[in-house]
Amino acid sequence: MRIRIMKEKRKTIAYSLAPEELSIILPNDEVPEEQFNSLIDAISMAKVGSGHHRLVTREELQELLRRWIDNLQVRPNRAQVRYMRDKWASCSQRKNITFNSLLTNMPKEFVEYVICHELLHLKVPRHNKLFRSLLSAYMPDWKERVTRTMEFVLHKELIW
Ligand SMILES: [Zn+2]
Fold first, then answer.
1. Is there a single domain that holds both residue 15 and residue 73?
2. For residue 142, how far is its CA from the centre of ligand 1 (angstroms)?
């Protein structure tokens, strides 16, 4: 996975985790280098490699998918796993759901988030208020899951 550092007109540092790229978005006004370095330090010292991050196999991905279909009481027309360059998952109007094969070898807590998120689109197609409240109801810690995964990816990249 690549790491890309971008600058945007914003006030705080943000992350965006795409399948082949973790972006770190910095505020446009020059970020002092020390601030950036201390961010990298903080992240690399985060609780990584503590066994917290269990990576998912393809079979586990299927199993998690079955479990969440059951849990959310949804009926996808078809669910498949294949490589996609720029998204983790997609849901068509015909209720066909596709998950990115790159999800295997990602932390389990992140894979579960992607599954839950995408299956919820069978109930609510758009990222509106209802969608966000359902997501938080079914997975209250989804933001932490995503953040920890980004820290994990960043740390891995720094080591290699
Ligand atoms: Zn979505």
1. no
2. 13
